[in-house]
Amino acid sequence: MSRPFRFKQFLIQQDNAPMKVGTDGALLGAWAGKGSPKKILDIGTGTGLIALMLAQRFTESKIIAIEPNEHAIKDASVNFERSPFAGRLELQQTSLDNFLVEEKFDLIVSNPPFFSKSLVSQDEGRNQARHTFSLSPVELSKSSRMLTKEGRLAVIYPLDSYAVFKEKMYTLDFFEERRLSVKPTPDKPFHRILGEFSRESIQQDTFELTIEKYGRHKYSEEYIELTKDFYLLNEEKPR
What's the mean pLDDT in 137-150? Predict the structure, then answer.
């Protein structure tokens, strides 16, 4: 039985979901979006972490979270119902391919699966959550059709998968408006990129972030600043 993860304004139960609370989701939830998006779509919500973080940040937003895995749905459903944002959250058990909606979104977010060459596990749910055969960068890029004219699409990927996604978004006339390059420690290379795309070809905002700057569990000032509204003091941050 997995230990629940407690944030400042909500609790994440993660007994059933194949993928537990991790740094990638926390980074995207704290970083994605700007302004006041009213309608948000979270693709592959898992435990519901990113949707809950966005609901906390954007207090006037309505969020639809979709997730194909029935075990993750169990956790996300409980997490949404117990949160103070329950009235603004809608959960649907469906894949992106089968998601049917007429409305457009101001912000779409996804912490998608990205393993394409690693060994496949015996756990089908974990495979679905981790491997690109369940949602490739090219497939995810197609969600841009559900954006409003000023809408944005934000993702987090390893460098190679991000390059594929970025190239595909360019072919759809979407441009990289913001980018955050992340490295785990100062002496290691960048291993994740957070990118936000829009239809506007404007000057790009690019930033860099190191997670653990002063040793194990000794977080950088930038990481603390980005996540300070979510983590409890002395709470071990997700990895």
Answer: 96
Residue 91's alpha-carbon distances to 2, 8, 130, 158, 195, in angstroms, are 22, 22, 21, 27, 24
The domain 5-227: what is its CATH number? 3.40.50.150
Closest-CA residue to 127 (of 116, 137, 138): 116
Report the distance separating Cα 239 and Cα 119, nearest Å. Answer: 21
- Model confidence at 126, pLDDT cuts 50, 70, 90, reads very low
Long-range CB contacts for residues 236-239, cutoff 8 Å, separation at least 24 = 237/23, 237/26, 238/5, 238/20, 238/21, 238/22, 238/23, 238/25, 238/26, 239/22, 239/23
Position 70 pLDDT exceeds 60: yes
Are the C-beta atoms of residues 68 and 46 closer than 8 Å to each other? no
CA gap 54, 134 in Å, rounded:
24
CA distance 239 to 20: 10
- Band of residue 227 on the pLDDT scale cut at 50, 70, 90: very high
| Three-state secondary-structure class, residue 75 | helix
pLDDT band of 205, cuts 50, 70, 90: confident
For residue 171, give the H/E element and its range: helix 159-171
| C-alpha–C-alpha distance, residues 13 and 153, integer Å | 27
Mapped onto helix, strand or coil, the DSSP state of residue 160 is helix
Give this prediction's pTM: 0.90
Element (H, E) at 180: strand 175-183
CB 80 within 8 A of CB 57: no
